[in-house]
Design goal:
5-stranded mixed sheet, 43% helix
């Protein structure tokens, strides 16, 4: 151990100045250890005075050099990571907007760690995934669910022509609702399987839920009227062309009955009743020739318009299915009958509340049909 007053006056003054003005508390503590050592204090006395361990005092009494303040810094102060340069950040902003497959990767999405690994190879700067995440956060990026896009499969010209035609129908229906009704048609399915999306869990732990999947599914087929948002839904065992025709036939009869309830003679429906425009997708069960011919023969007031391919965003009934599935998510049903009873109340008895102004999630361009 050095003798008392081993420091020269100028060195002691320099240490005292650093003790007053150095910004880092650890450096100031180590300077104080050296100054107390210079006053002839034992290591135990220094530890008691400073309020630290004897081991720490012993280490800095040996490794701390009063002539070299850099010796008082440890590895943590030097930084255990490299800092991102402006060039690194610009490269990150360029890469984040590219699909991984464009750069030769087989995975489908970028994680912060994958970005860090790729950019290390490109720039030579090694950052952690959390550092990359902080940079992205500072650039207003968030990690959220993406929307599925059908744009590559869509025909813009067909979509444009359909929209123009639909606008003409819409104009007629608004000006003369007694002449034309617009209905959207589609099929969907609901399962007994519980959709557990997220659960509250204590940090560091993940809540366990039952892994067994309950079997049971309900297939529905139905229509939504644009003017008043009325829905009519049938429950089916299977979606087939024959079932499509039967449901459509029942739907047609209900429209006739509704029309007659306003003082009209039901037998005059084909002559004086409104045209019923059905907008539906291109599912094979909708396009079977034998049933299309039957529709023309038995339901002359019915007009069928098929959507452009890969354009479910133009079918407003998709919002009904989506809202119903959100409503029943995370619910437990004792039986398929319980699920059907709830769906009947939601879809046929008007209990489902729908925000008609919202966009359709994961439906291509997310353009509402109206």
């Amino acid at each position: 151990m050095p003798v008392k007053n081993y420091l020269k006056t100028d060195k002691k003054q320099k240490l005292q100045n650093e003790l007053k003005y150095n910004e880092h508390p650890d450096i100031r503590e180590r300077i104080l250890i050296l100054l107390l050592q210079n006053d002839g204090k034992t290591q135990q006395e220094i530890a008691d005075f400073v309020g630290c361990s004897l081991r720490k005092v012993a280490y800095w009494c040996v490794h701390g050099d009063a002539n070299n303040l850099e010796s008082l810094k440890d590895k943590r102060m030097e930084g255990n990571y490299q800092k991102a340069t402006p060039e690194y950040v610009n490269k990150l902003m360029e890469v984040i907007n590219k699909e991984p497959e464009e750069l030769g990767y087989e995975f489908g999405r970028w994680t912060a760690q994958r970005l860090a690994t790729y950019l290390e190879g490109e720039t030579g700067i090694k950052l952690s995934g959390s550092q990359v995440r902080r940079i992205l956060k500072s650039k207003k990026y968030v990690y959220i669910w993406a929307k599925y896009s059908l744009e590559e499969s869509q025909d813009p010209e067909k979509r444009k022509l359909f929209k123009e035609k639909f606008d003409e129908y819409l104009k007629i229906a608004k000006e003369s609702p007694e002449r034309l009704q617009i209905w959207f048609w589609d099929e969907s399915g609901f399962s007994l399987r519980v959709l557990r999306r997220k659960n509250w869990s204590k940090k560091g732990k993940r809540k366990k839920v039952k892994g067994n999947r309950r079997k049971g599914r309900i297939n529905v087929m139905g229509a939504l009227r644009l003017s008043d948002k009325k829905t009519r839904v049938e429950f089916l065992e299977k979606g087939t062309g024959e079932n499509f025709f039967k449901v459509l036939e029942g739907f047609y009869e209900e429209v006739k009955i509704e029309w007659s309830e306003h003082g009209n003679k039901i037998e005059k429906f084909e002559v004086n009743g409104p045209k019923i425009l059905i907008i539906l997708d291109n599912a094979s069960i909708h396009k079977k020739k034998e049933f299309l011919e039957k529709i023309k023969e038995k339901m002359p007031n019915l007009i069928i318009e098929f959507l452009p391919e890969y354009s479910p965003d133009y079918n407003l009934i998709e919002l009904v299915w989506h809202s119903a599935k959100e409503f029943i998510a995370n619910r437990l049903f004792k039986s398929i009958e319980d699920l059907e009873e709830l769906l009947n109340r939601l879809l046929n008895e008007g209990e489902l509340v729908i925000n008609w102004g919202r966009k359709l999630k994961n439906k291509g361009n997310a353009v509402n049909a109206v």
